[in-house]
Amino acid sequence: MQLEESTLATINEWLNGNYDQETKNTIQALLDSNATTELTDSFYRSLEFGTGGLRGIMGAGSNRINKYTIGTATQGLANYLNKKYKGEQISVAIAHDSRNNSDVFANITADVFSANGIKVYFFSALRPTPELSFAIRELGCKSGVMLTASHNPKEYNGYKAYGNDGGQFTSPDDKMVMDEVAAIKSIDEVKFDRIASNVETIGEDIDKLYLDKITALSVSPEAIAREHDLKIVYSPIHGTGITLVPKALAQFGFTNVNIVEEQSKPDGNFPTVIYPNPEEKEALTLALKKAAEIDADLVLATDPDADRVGIAVKNNDGEFELLNGNQTGSLLINYLLTAWEEREKLTGNEYVVSTIVTTSLIKAICDAKGVEYFDTLTGFKWIGKVMTENEGKKTFIAGGEESYGYLIGDLVRDKDAVISAAFIA
Predict the structure, then answer these.
(1) Which domain holds residue 233?
(2) Could you tell me if 154 and 275 lie in one domain?
């Protein structure tokens, strides 16, 4: 197999351009070993900055996630922000998950933003994706970036870009950002030299605010007080959920939370699973084993960036069964609307949002309770867009989609497994 001329031209650009020696050595080793398949896949195109940002395999090359593709994406986003908010104070928030190199890529993102005169609020350690969305809104940021590839295998990483409402970019801004990223033709256009005075570390202060506001959303504090000893097994599947989910459950009032120790430590290699995906029963094997050992009542598991949650409950035979996203979402919406109804909080101005690929049962529940229902395209960013369009006009109760992503209350603009885990329990 021969390398295409355009691919070879890009390879030579990386070998001769302003890239570090380690990257050049990696590329040269692939050339020396005649690894044409890997070279082709690494260089045949530039990794596309899509509507949600970047996602791909880590490694050297224009079609890989590395410090240069991350830097280019950030420079493009910075250019968009400096044009859109010209003359204004611009700030962004940055967080990262437990994946290999996520912390490195987060720091590079901070370098580039700060070098472009943009104030950076930088989480001091790994944090869930929804907390980043919360921070953007709470701190009045114009944008934010989460370094994560969600539930993809360990070889992957990614870059999720957010707008000033704390949601992922939607039209027309998503296209504007993509155009700015695509306009960068040389790595020399990327400003990598951090201006330290533009970077402020955040962490526990935002954690406390976030957890306190989550706790204030509770609709059944008296029921939790009665059932506080509900035996819960929780696994963060080596991800960021360990930082906040146990605390959220504790603040809600649950006193018997049992963490799966083998999966409690953040680890980008995800050593106990094939895919760190709570949709997959295999990922919950250790949690289900622990649940059987201690005769638990509920199993909860979150993905690496803690925006999605999987659950298992006992059937009539006392065996644990995983609920799918449609089942969990329907139960959650029914519980919430019933609780609002019992407390006489439904005024006719409330609404629920879901997607066109999610069960129609959620709409049926809303119709039965007299609550307005919105359908959106697939993807939580569209749920967030409906929320932003109705902000200050209507009261958002909850939203969800079949792929295990849910949100209760309007604290954030993305799916939130921290909030969802507390309400599911």
Answers:
(1) 210-324
(2) no
H/E element, 29: helix 21-32
Same domain, 94 and 160: yes
409 located within any domain: no
Q: Give the separation between CA 285 and CA 269, rounded to whole angstroms.
A: 17
**Which CATH number goes with the domain that contains 282?**
3.40.120.10
Name the active-site residue from 150, 330, 354, 420: 150
- Domain stops at, among 291, 324, 357: 324
Cis check: omega of the bond before 172, within 30 degrees of 0: yes
Q: Please indicate, yes or no, if residue 359 is contained in any of the structural domains.
A: yes
pLDDT (tens digit, 0 to 9) for every residue of the chain, 425 residues total? Answer: 789 999 999 999 999 999 999 999 999 999 999 999 999 999 999 999 988 899 999 999 999 999 999 999 999 999 999 999 999 999 999 999 999 999 999 999 999 999 999 999 999 999 999 999 999 999 999 999 999 999 999 999 999 999 999 999 999 999 999 999 999 999 999 999 999 999 999 999 999 999 999 999 999 999 999 999 999 999 999 999 999 999 999 999 999 999 999 999 999 999 999 999 999 999 999 999 999 999 999 999 999 999 999 999 999 999 999 999 999 999 999 999 999 999 999 999 999 999 999 999 999 999 999 999 999 999 999 999 999 999 999 999 999 999 999 999 999 999 999 999 999 99
Total tally of structural domains belonging to the chain: 4
pTM over 0.85: yes
150 among known catalytic residues: yes
Question: What's the rounded Cα separation, in Å, for the pair 365 and 358?
Answer: 13
Q: Which of these, 239, 270, 268, 274, lies nearest to 99 by C-alpha position?
A: 268
